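New to this. Look over this protein:
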Amino acid sequence: IDDKTYNKLWFPFDRENYVKFLDNLEKAKPAVIWFDIFFADKSNIKSDLSLSKKMQSLWNIVLWFWIQNNKAIFPYELYSKNISLGFFKPKIDPKALKVYSVEPFLKPKSESWKYFESFSFAVLRKYYNILFWENNNTIDNNIINHKYNFFTEIRKTWVPLNENNEFVINFINPKAFKKESFYNIYSGNFNPLDFKDKIVLIWATAQGIRDDFTIPYYWIIKWVYIHANVIN
């Protein structure tokens, strides 16, 4: 959602616009579609029903939810049922005020029987499940010697963590990631081959939408690029 989109459609815009966007993006056959947009409240019922129905039909959507005071705050109920979810909770160093790491998963007190993965890990799990055709959705606290067993018995992949059991991000320049205007996809003016079998992250780079964070290289970047770096 760049400056072009912001100027053409404004933001936030009617959720019917996401349906048109997804109709066009679906034709490109991406592997995973990830909304870094929190559909917190209901809008007009027609748009909510239309977008919810579209998301449910695609099966490769991942949405995020918020953690506040160790409580899980989920999207509006039409969007949170039968949809893969990952939590959003920045790990900002209190002294340097920079983002260095993310927690691989959390167990909120409000959902004591569930574990939830960080947004980026939830997207990767969805991607690999599609890639390998494995129904491997088991999430637990399987950390041994500061290594997180991302996959369980089917395909063991141990992800290294720091002494606080956080995943340290190896940042690369945001320009390394392919970027496309939301408006271009919305209007059908894009190359579908750029998206086939890819992970597609949807959120803001427009200057009018404040979502800026500082990372170790003194870059100030939009949060969507932090997620992209974790996945990378």
